[in-house]
From TrEMBL:
Pfam families: BrxC. NCBIfam families: B_thiol_YtxJ. This is Bacillithiol system redox-active protein YtxJ. It comes from Hymenobacter lucidus. InterPro entries: BrxC, Thioredoxin-like_sf. It comes from the Bacteria.
Length: 114
């Protein structure tokens, strides 16, 4: 099974993500398409996804170069510092975990999923 990326292209989706996060965990992956570290992190997520046991977790993909204002809105809404690449775990309307660069591992997310 490949990573079920959901494109994050409109700021209105953040309201839906917060609502969804009260039902089940939601991940947001912020990706810079021009950065080799970001490409490596995305590839690692795709390799780890099949064994990650996160079937009830939606994972959104944000292309930072095309949708930069949404990244700034995410930082404000969830009170986190913008980084790229960055993986955020949203639960009960809050960012309960974030990791960036080569520190992005789905095993860490699994440990935090409630």
């Amino acid at each position: 099974m490949s990573t079920p990326w959901q494109p994050l292209t409109e700021s209105e989706q953040l309201t839906d993500i917060v609502r969804e996060s009260h039902e089940h965990p939601v991940l947001i992956f912020k990706h810079s398409t021009s950065c080799s570290i970001s490409a490596a992190a995305k590839s690692k997520l795709e390799r780890q996804w099949p064994e990650a046991n996160l079937a009830d977790t939606k994972i959104y993909y944000l292309d930072l170069l095309r949708f930069r204002p949404i990244s700034a809105e995410i930082a404000t809404k969830f009170g986190i510092r913008h980084e790229s690449p960055q993986l955020l775990l949203i639960q009960d309307g809050e960012c309960s975990f974030d990791a960036s660069h080569m520190g992005i591992r789905l095993s860490d997310v699994q440990a935090k999923v409630q």
